[in-house]
Write a structure and sequence with these properties.
Two copies of one chain form a homodimer.
Chain A: H1 21-28, E1 32-36, E2 39-42, H2 44-63, E3 66-68, E4 74-76, H3 77-83, H4 85-88, E5 95-97, E6 103-106, H5 111-118, E7 130-139, E8 154-164, H6 167-188, E9 193-197, E10 207-214, E11 220-224, E12 231-233, E13 252-255, H7 262-269, E14 277-284, E15 287-297, H8 304-311, E16 315-317, E17 341-344, E18 354-357, E19 363-368, H9 370-374, E20 399-413, H10 415-419, E21 424-425, E22 431-432, E23 435-442, H11 443-453, E24 455-456, E25 459-460, E26 471-475, H12 481-496, E27 501-503, H13 510-520, E28 524-528, H14 530-534, E29 538-542, E30 548-551, H15 556-563
Parallel strand pairs in A: 3-7, 15-17, 26-27, 26-28
Antiparallel strand pairs in A: 1-2, 4-6, 5-6, 7-8, 8-23, 9-10, 10-20, 11-12, 11-20, 13-19, 14-15, 14-16, 18-19, 20-23, 21-22, 24-25, 28-29, 29-30
Chain lengths: ~575, ~575
């Protein structure tokens, strides 16, 4: 490819609002161009990477006996009603009417389509297990696109669906995909990917893992144990509760006046947040008569993902003044709100002599005892794990990290096969709903994540296995006849030898050429100039290390073969 | 691939409403599954073909120095307003609002996106020419999907866009793409593809060619000259007008009563349709005050595509009774409708002594003369060419054929670059809008067209170059240990030797296996059975010819290498 003809431009400055290296460099180096908020065109260099990433994924899926399909982007409402997701997913699912007035959706995931593909033809357990997958455009009506290709509305995704006759078979296959995902990231050149336990979210099912690339610009919070390598998304992370001190007290109502927040109450009563039981109030989304009150220790935060799972519905913070509750004075003693569902976090277990609201304006109780004064029927885990808490597996101190989710896998169970009526006959003549797994990778997000991990202050630095081109052929002083002649000769020869070459054939300054080669991140740069011709050599520079290697025209291909390995 | 695990089923009967062989067989053989009207899932065998077709297209585009991109499926209204197409395309362009209320469209073509990709970075004529392309899902809100994958709403398409500094350069490149398209169809195994001149439609521009696979089930009408090979879509086809006889007559008003249609008037007056000038009335879509009246010889039909081009807008048949015109008695003498735009077809040129309406209830004129009584300022070509008319190039008789459009290419001119403000600086310092070409191929429609052309009464019959698998390994009597052992051995060996094998590992009857192998259309079938084992041979059958070849285990791979050539 000749750079003079390559569509896209190299820019000096980062685009306004660029919030990550990958966002900035992918735009500055001419890889992507924004069309609309969260919607991008992949320019030729990015599409070359995209094709290579897809090929890696395809090969690994085929190794798992995956069968590639192509499901539709646009699907009818009826298909999504079968699973119940037409109504259960909020605005992220884009709905529209076609010209006949028929309700349609834009696919953001394809469980329904995958089950539909099997309806009719899947009949016997003997056909199981199998896995079908696709690599297809998806659209998610994302509220807050950000960071270039990291969080977008439209993206290319590989989504795979496996079908099994037993949970044990699913688990064995799930483990194979889990391992294949690490091979995929390894081949893509991502080094810091870890698997973390995760929420099953809109997919349903019980077990799910995410693959997270650890990076400070990641938008996900991950709780990791450096000791035993347990790792979870904060949404589902747990820790061993600290033991509360057993200092018995006398329950006494005290006037606290305007003190409402944890800080104000603690300051007023000379207590620490861990000596307070605070309340956080919610209502169920779509059914505001369902009131949820969560109590937890004052130094903890509610983990809404966990609470949602317990409630079984989406929830939102709600001011409950209308019910007679006094904000800032809500407490777990003598609380009487008809129909309210009350949850006590495990951080409260065994807490004695603590402070809580007196459920009347300007007053709190002190000296409260959980076992004597509250006696909840059970404690549940609804708090967010914080750095330094104890690992639930080994008890060592947990760390908080940031990550980009570059893949996720789910044990779905029979949610889709049962609602959509997919059955197989078992050896004993009974019928069952096959048990499903599903496995996703966002290709564009992988591209951005690789860029994020493989870049420096000069620009991108693509791993060899997925680089758009391997070689940046960079003749300096193309106005020099000898340079030009050698450049053209080498370009034609390297192309003929099946090297992937980007040829900087522009009549521009050495500074611009060298800067662009680094910004674009092509792994190997070949410089030829009047000086190299005089010295009868060719200068090879490795982008990632800066190492320089000298070759002659005769041994150039051999040297390149030694360098371009993946 | 083991057939027992392959997703999809083989059906005995054609689906209800199947209107073509490809539609019927692709469903019956488990290649596609309908999700909604005009929306299909490609099951694994079809997706294997899809990938091979895409690879052929990609290679041919890259040979033309094409740069692969990926444009968005979902685009903002603003982009389509720049070109004027947000309003000029009717309901086929699917419009919707996203969650923020922003107007968006689903891409049915990507001229706007292609120009957008170049804005900013394209500056100098030195960067020209170049071509960018993508292979991407498209959605067209098709009013009448039909014939399986032949006419659908959602499809995979390769669309390419070239940019040039002169019309001559565009024409030279256009010719290269034209030739590449024939290579593509050849490699795909389509034999009866011809290029025909076509309408530029919603794309604009002046020159366009379609590639048509000639087949009786095609929905396009093509006018071809078997003598000189001129071929055109009927929308734009022309012919040499027949000379009208110069029999002078006396213009006389006659009572024709209830005779309104051409047949009735001819019968009433004892004339032939070629002795009548008929009127067809239209209004402009979106501006019903613009009235269009087309006059043409009674034996001709209006070619609305040609008329639209002359009018410059979309038109629809309209009853003009309100204006005082009498349906069935409209004529070209003394016609006085204020503001009406009147067109005279070239078939009327030199017509004498003909019949036309008298513009009053129950009367016609006879003996009318175009030169004496009507004197139009010009004649235009607004009639549809019919079989037997004279070729405009060589004068021989034209034939009418049916075809499936499997690709189209356009010389777009500067319509998009000028409206979207894309310019380049020329050597003399002036700026111009680059001249564009665009080049489309529907991948799914190619798949269906190949199926249409390559099938017989037993089923599909894929060309070797794009077959989903090359070999159908078909052991009969898998309950026989020796057969089973040899089948497994051969399957593993052929896979290891990189043959593409579909292994019919089902414990089912020989009849079902042989029938399925023919229905699915895999080019080479290998049968092993107790009999072949006894005879110490292996039976190879060529699907397209029925030819049988016998091999041994030793020379099997060599024989297969000789057969599997493309």
């Amino acid at each position: 490819m000749k750079l003079s003809k390559l569509v896209g431009e190299r820019l000096k400055d980062a685009p306004a609002g660029a919030s990550s290296k990958s966002h900035s460099y992918l735009i500055r180096a001419g890889y992507i161009k924004q069309v609309s908020n969260g919607i991008y065109t992949l320019l030729p260099p990015a599409q070359r990477i995209n094709n290579k990433l897809q090929q890696i994924i395809r090969e690994e899926m085929d190794t798992l006996d995956g069968q590639e399909c192509l499901f539709p982007v646009v699907m009818p409402r009826e298909l999504w009603e079968l699973s119940g997701r037409y109504s259960s997913i909020a605005e992220e699912l884009l709905r529209f009417k076609d010209r006949t007035g028929h309700d349609m959706v834009l696919g953001m995931t394809h469980e329904e389509a995958a089950v539909h593909a099997c309806l009719g033809s899947l009949k016997s357990y003997e056909q199981l297990p199998f896995m079908i997958y696709q690599i297809q455009t998806k659209y998610r009506d994302e509220a807050r696109p950000r960071a270039g290709l990291i969080r977008v509305k439209e993206f290319t995704m590989k989504d795979a669906y496996s079908f099994h006759s037993s949970q044990a078979d699913l688990e064995a296959y799930y483990k194979k995909v889990y391992d294949a995902y690490f091979r995929i990231y390894h081949r893509m050149g991502m080094k810091k990917v870890i698997a973390v336990h995760s929420d099953t979210g809109m997919m349903g099912g019980k077990v799910a893992d995410e693959f997270q690339l650890l990076t400070d610009i990641g938008e996900d919070t991950i709780i990791v144990c450096p000791h035993c390598d347990t790792a979870s998304n904060v949404d589902v992370a747990t820790s061993i509760p600290e033991e509360n001190e057993h200092i018995f007290g006398v329950k006494t109502e005290v006037f606290t006046g305007e003190a409402k927040t944890i800080e104000e109450v603690c300051s007023n009563l000379n207590k620490t947040p861990s000596q307070v039981a605070k309340a956080v109030c919610y209502a169920v989304v779509g059914d505001s008569s369902r009131i949820i009150i969560a109590f937890l220790r004052g130094d903890k935060e509610v983990n809404e993902s966990k609470l949602k799972l317990l409630v079984g519905s989406d929830i939102a913070i709600k001011d409950l003044s209308e019910t007679g509750l006094v904000k800032g004075n809500i407490g777990c003693v003598n609380l009487n709100i008809e129909g309210a569902e009350i949850f006590y976090d495990k951080s409260l277990e065994g807490l004695e002599s603590f402070v809580t609201g007196a459920n009347k304006e300007g007053y709190h109780f002190i000296g409260v005892s959980m076992t004597r004064d509250v006696k909840p029927s059970k404690y549940v885990d609804i708090s967010k794990v914080k750095e330094g808490e104890a690992c639930p597996v080994c008890g060592q101190k947990l760390l908080v990290k940031r990550g980009i989710e570059v893949g996720n896998i789910f044990q779905l169970g029979t949610r889709y096969t049962s609602t959509m009526g997919l059955t197989v006959t078992m050896p004993d003549g009974t019928t069952i709903n096959p048990i499903m797994g599903c496995y996703g990778i966002g290709v564009g997000r992988c591209l951005a994540s690789i860029a994020e991990e493989n870049s420096d202050e000069k620009g991108l630095c693509w791993p060899m296995g997925i680089a758009p081109w391997h070689i940046y052929l960079c003749p300096l002083r193309l106005d020099n006849e000898e340079v030009k002649e050698q450049a053209e000769r080498l370009y034609n020869r390297l192309i003929a030898e099946n090297f992937e070459v980007l040829y900087d054939d522009r009549n521009t300054s050495a500074g611009i050429k060298l800067t662009d080669s680094e910004l674009m991140g092509i792994p190997v740069r070949i410089v030829i100039s009047p000086k190299t011709i005089e010295n009868n050599n060719i200068e090879i520079t490795i982008r990632s290390t800066g190492e320089k290697i000298f070759a002659t025209e005769d041994n150039l291909s051999k040297k390149l073969d030694e360098i371009i390995i993946y």
